[in-house]
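Chain and conformation:
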Amino acid sequence: MVKQAVEVAENGKIRCDACPVMCYIADGRSGACDRYANEGGELIRVDPLTIIEGTVSSGGKIIPFLPDHLEDEWNGDLVHARKPFITAVGAGTTYPDYKPAPFIVSQKQNGVDMVTVVTEGIFSYCGAKVKIDTDRFLGPETAAVRVDGEPIGHVMTGEYGSQMLSLGGVHHLTGGSKKEGRVTCDALLKLCNSEAVELVIDGGANIIVQAGRAPIINGAEEQRMRVGCGSATIGMFAKQWKELVDEVVVVDDHITGVLSEHQAGKLLYIPPTGIKIKGRRSTPGRYFQVAEPGTGWGGTNIEDPLAILGDFDPKVAYPSLRMLMVSTTGEQSGYYILDENLRPVLQSNLPGPIQESVDIIAENCEPALATVMFMGGAGGSLRAGVTTNPVRLTRSVKEALTHVSCGGAPAYVWPGGGITVMADVTEMPSNSFGYVPTPALVAPIEFTMRLTDYEALGGHMEAIVPIEQAIELAERKIAPVVEGAWPTAERNFRWGA
């Protein structure tokens, strides 16, 4: 249980200065954020300080591969057994910014003196980038994403089998109404703590999103993401279809593929079939805009795939021509044979070998997931808690002398100015995120470096304590969430690469 100094007491209450709200908290009660409480006149951090330990007792996966008498000679320590790492989860904040981070701890990494600075940052400049694996149309690009009627973000680009959403950000947290800021903060908190959130997209779908789980779109749980676009699907499976059918159309909202016209079909000597596709022809065998976006075949708005076909060319087509139409996930498929009038007639069942080819498409589709990436800008209070000269920390991070992690999880640092980080919330300890009612998200962040580098950037040397001292305060010890990732490992630094 982490305790903090209290400067102001009034009417039996103590004043918390861990965020700009500055709550007065009565004995036995917690503040508005539920993160700090008054316990007998002392301000305590409610959530447990979390230590990551790579040990068998804490559930870590340790595979012995050396005899016991040789263990001391091995210093690679690939699993970091018996080495603790203090995370910022439950550590407390640096607000109001003039003081050192709550914990600045020292430890050795293979004989190198290391320092880790941990703090729970108050992020007004933060949000979540959400990747939803689906072929279905979720909403037009830039459309508002809402929770309880309030806009909390917007639809971004469609990627390869996924739709991207940008949620949160300072304009939604502080630039709109009070309710918009509150709802945005609450939605971000739930998403980043891997809880389910219901989102409604203007002009689009209703979605339930939970990190690491399949998205639920308009009440139906998504099962798989596409194997590829229609053109790529033709290329991947053309050989299997050559002897089974005369024509294949892979229906796709983005790029519909046609086997006989596609370069793969040409190289396999598949003859023309006289097929006509309604859409904008791109390159041979590749068509754009065959239908409007939707939740039907291949992310289009159609339920009958024949709607994208024109009349077959009677100079080329012939009765009994066999045609497979299939979606990019294999969820929809139909087997057709041209009749005497060159009209495709749906067959009641797919022949066994053709069904197997459709099953292979489905087998090659990965499970659909929702991915939530926390994204935040580490600004003044965070950097001031590390060093008296904040710009030096920024330079040290960019020079790979300082490694950034979030709750011990690897954090991607964006190029360019500042320290803008992004981390997968499923790789962080449970309940890593909190909030303050300003509103802003509270997220753990750690800066790890050599002791000599910390001194060079103007660090708070007087505040350094051995990690053993921090461990004594830890109330939660967990195994590494990400196997193989360790913030103090030499490979994270320029000098250890």
Observations:
- The chain has a mean pLDDT of 89.
